[in-house]
Design a protein that fits this description.
Oligomer: single chain
Shape: elongated
CATH class of the largest domain: Alpha Beta
Strand content: 5-15%
Structural class: alpha/beta
CATH topology of the largest domain: Uracil-DNA Glycosylase, subunit E
Bound molecules: uracil
Distance between the termini: 55 Å
Order of helices and strands: HHHEEHHEEHHEHEHHEEHH
CATH superfamily of the largest domain: Uracil-DNA glycosylase-like domain
Number of domains: 2
Number of strands: 8
Number of helices: 12
């Protein structure tokens, strides 16, 4: 029996061959031969985080409209994906961080070495390596680490005590509860979000709404539990309508955030979204430009990624968060 290709006449054969060469020239031939399976895979991945739905409001101030999000089964392990090519210059090569402070973390086995894009950056105040050819975003002001005086012998208890029934900014007028933090005071990993949303305001705990569920899923996909990490926000009271915290509110609240970080001394701070990046790192550049990169701040590292609420609004971008969390996992694992 003649194959399908045998039945094509010469002119059709030539047309197909020319078209494939054209795709080769564009470097997308593989895409044309494999996109079917890729689509199936990516649909399955999204299904894992967006099947059942609820209509509660996303608590991120940057998300004002209600979105729908499911309670999905937790991913059991972070799939190994190719690292994103950073859109900033070649990173400073990573060196393995010191061994984990605790052994509580159960990282899923890593088959391959850390992605090439796991990198260490120079401190915010120092010019980055290779900045000449394609400059990195430059921090626009002092980071919290530089701006706030350290308090010797500070503890989380004392910080909470000092915060008291805070009325330092106007957010106190509309809050239900102060949302101080949640998690392990000896955590190696600290997450900094933007500010409490509705659910957090009601419960007095950070990241307990739908964005929080996604964050928790991502944490667990790294092989950690929520109680292994420390979770806090730039501001501790919910901004009305989940709006972005204003400068005076950030100025009043951020010293407490800094003291929390300084007291915990984590190995890594993960800034979730632009306000956290601006506050902690002093970097004003768009999150998509600087995400996934490691910055040095004294003996602590910081990495910026997108806010989980952004992924709730743009589920197709979930890969970004996964990739950045893989970097976090590899960093903590010392890969
Ligand atoms: N978004 C945040 O930035 N923080 C929270 O605590 C919850 C949602």
């Amino acid at each position: 029996m003649r194959s399908m290709a045998d039945r094509f006449d010469d002119s059709l054969r030539k047309k197909i061959s020319d078209r494939l060469s054209f795709y080769d020239d564009l470097g997308i031939r593989l895409f044309y031969t494999t996109r079917q399976s890729a689509l199936v895979e990516s649909s399955a991945a999204f299904a894992a985080t967006s099947a059942s739905e609820s209509s509660a409001e996303v608590s991120s101030p940057s998300v004002h409209q209600p979105v729908r999000y499911e309670d999905s089964p937790l991913p059991k392990a972070m799939p190994k994906t190719k690292s994103l090519k950073p859109d900033v210059p070649a990173p400073v090569p990573a060196t393995a961080p010191p061994a984990a402070r605790t052994t509580a973390y159960m990282m899923p086995p890593t088959k391959s070495p850390a992605p090439a894009s796991v990198s260490r950056r120079m401190p915010a105040s120092a010019p980055p390596v290779a900045a000449k050819s394609n400059p990195l975003p430059t921090p626009s002001g002092p980071s919290l680490f530089e701006a706030v005086n350290k308090i010797a012998g500070d503890t989380l208890l004392k910080i909470r005590d000092d915060l008291g029934d805070c009325k330092r900014c106007k957010l106190h007028q509309t809050r239900t509860n102060i949302v101080f933090a949640d998690g392990n005071p000896k955590a190696e990993l600290v997450f900094v979000g933007e500010g409490p949303g509705h659910d957090e305001d009601v419960q007095g705990l950070p990241f307990v709404g739908r964005a929080g569920k996604l964050l928790t899923q991502m944490i667990e996909a790294m092989g950690l539990q929520r109680q292994d990490v420390y979770i806090c926000n730039v501001v501790k009271c919910r901004p009305p309508e989940n709006r972005t915290p204003e400068k005076d509110e950030v100025d009043a609240c951020s010293p407490f955030l800094y003291r929390q970080i300084e007291s915990i001394k984590p190995r890594l701070i993960c800034c979730l979204g632009a306000p956290a990046v601006r506050t902690v790192l002093g970097i004003k550049e768009g999150i998509t430009k600087i995400r996934g990169q490691f910055y040095n701040f004294g003996s602590t590292k910081a990495l910026a990624t997108v806010h989980p609420a952004y992924i709730l609004r743009n589920p197709r971008e979930e890969k970004i968060l996964r990739e950045d969390f893989e970097k976090i996992r590899d960093f903590l694992k010392g890969a």
